[in-house]
# Entry
Amino acid sequence: MRILILGGDGYLGWPTAMYLSRRQHAVAVLDNFAKRRWEMELNVEPLIPIRTLHDRVDAWEKVSGERIELFVGDLRNYGVVEGVLEAFRPDTIVHYGEQPSAPYSMIDHNRAVFTQTNNVTGTLNALWAIRKVVPECHLVKLGTMGEYGTPNIDIEEGFIEIEHKGRKDVLPFPCQPGSFYHLSKVHDSHNIRFACKVWKLAATDLHQGVVYGIETDETQLDSRLETSFHYDEVFGTALNRFTVQAAAGIPLTVYGRGGQSRGFLNIRDTLRCVELVILNPAKAGEYRVFNQFTETFTVAQLAALVVQQARKLGMAAEIEHVENPRIELEQHHYQPAHTKLMALGLEPHYLSNVLLESMLGRVTRFQARIKRDIIQPRVRWDTRGREVEELKRMWAGA
Amino acid sequence: MRILILGGDGYLGWPTAMYLSRRQHAVAVLDNFAKRRWEMELNVEPLIPIRTLHDRVDAWEKVSGERIELFVGDLRNYGVVEGVLEAFRPDTIVHYGEQPSAPYSMIDHNRAVFTQTNNVTGTLNALWAIRKVVPECHLVKLGTMGEYGTPNIDIEEGFIEIEHKGRKDVLPFPCQPGSFYHLSKVHDSHNIRFACKVWKLAATDLHQGVVYGIETDETQLDSRLETSFHYDEVFGTALNRFTVQAAAGIPLTVYGRGGQSRGFLNIRDTLRCVELVILNPAKAGEYRVFNQFTETFTVAQLAALVVQQARKLGMAAEIEHVENPRIELEQHHYQPAHTKLMALGLEPHYLSNVLLESMLGRVTRFQARIKRDIIQPRVRWDTRGREVEELKRMWAGA
# Structure
């Protein structure tokens, strides 16, 4: 199958490209390296040094004998998107190519607007270009479990049957996203559903949980194939951040009471889920939503698991409850469905002590590179009254 | 009260400005005249000649003795929005400042992306600037009944109580918008709800039906105060279009079977609704949705009413069912709630033969200006496979 990966330079995009390339698909990646510029803006960097995408593509060819095709360009430019589709003519597009951070989208008005226009425009351009160039192509779009928020009812996979005043309908599950980033994903989902309806496109919207992990079978083949592992407050996700805090000997920062429940999954399961979805595509006109995670934990539970394992390894890990910079419920019902990917054959890598030990070990090897001052949360959701001086301090390295 | 009207040059913005100015509010308008440029692009124009906004503001002062403050600028420019809020310091912002046409948003990828980035960015900028400059300000945002689509259950006002697997919650009403324009309004609604939650802003989202009518008490005071009345397929709404077709002696074009039900209201009621909402503002942190229409009709019913009245006036009006250019249900359940504005004191101007007679009479006076070739629907929702040549023909005047 011919598979184009949008955002192929990212934490998930690059491992997905190698994973699919190794399984005999013709793979191409498109990226504009925006993420590397955002890192520069905030003076953060991945824990483990990574090569340029060009160098990684070359290294992958040396290691595997397979060539991944590389396109450089910005999804916001419709001409780029249409041109790449014409040049590569994919059967499937896996769309990771968005600004992926909630805190980034909450820094200031500029980044809020950027996040939404960047993400929405890129996806709209992809939809219009698919319609024109490869209308049979299956769009696999990465969304987030955060699109749902935390309603007081069980979360279903994209749709819910509602009975109301004696009538019934199956309707899109109501969304209560918790940041301008999460909102951008909700906007995308609405746009994609509409495009599938009017143009008979085929799309699968993966509402993904929080991904953890550093390694996949392919990144382990050669140090030049590492993926971008973030631990800072803006791009680092909960478990990844916790392992780095443990390795650095600083307290694990749990936001507020830590009762926030979320869905989590191993990076290896992300790749397998995407593969399963590609092999079992949506039909023409079909818009599907799969909830893509394997387990739910509260943030406090996760931190406790990391502390426990870190202590076994002789680290002096402890938990610190810090004031929650976000506006979110810290105690709530959370029972999201996630049966559809299991039904396709997903066999989860559940979070285990073995995995935690391996992550902690790997992170410890790069201990010297940890920047301690980029982990503490500084981006606050309630920015009302936040002063210019504070913003200056935050983002000019002070 | 100090009231800033975004989109003050438009069909509704200008009459709203005069209506509120006459009622002793301090009124300012902001516009970038984008709508006049879109008219130029498509070679369409309002039926009744209108002056520039500068001239209308001057004429209003001569007629009423009241001065409306005029700002020229683009909502997509955050600096403009913040600057205007600092200069005027409104207590209320009435936000009409968006690309308002579903067909316009469906013409091509460029206008789809433009509609969404324009509308979403303008509203995001307004939210961020309100938060910084006038956090107590009440935002009155014009949304559309089209945000809901046509579910098979009764439509409530913004929220619905859902009971699911033994648990309950009040959640945002699921949205199934039917064009990239309607989608942009759904994106706005999600963004506004979030801003109210995290920043404690106060907002009322008016999910408005289809507005009809040419005149208000204020536009009638002087011919220089006319508002922009569109009858073309892109900017003209159903009833307005039908009256012009009747006056021009061409068949009233009903899309498909005409069983599409929609909520409608008189332009005079739009002004009164906005006033009621301004006088009864949302509280800090509150996001309210009011469904703003007074009656529902099917498109076929509306057309029949116009034909009936036109014939009484001696016009040879008839109905033509044309292939529906949109993708929408032509027969469906439609029972939307609209009690909240009534509870605030709205006394509707229902559609009457007197109103239709007056509209037909007024339109007939401007008969010579009717461009017949801009009424027929040419923008199709199902654009898959549409050729460049066809687009060229459509929009280069052929």
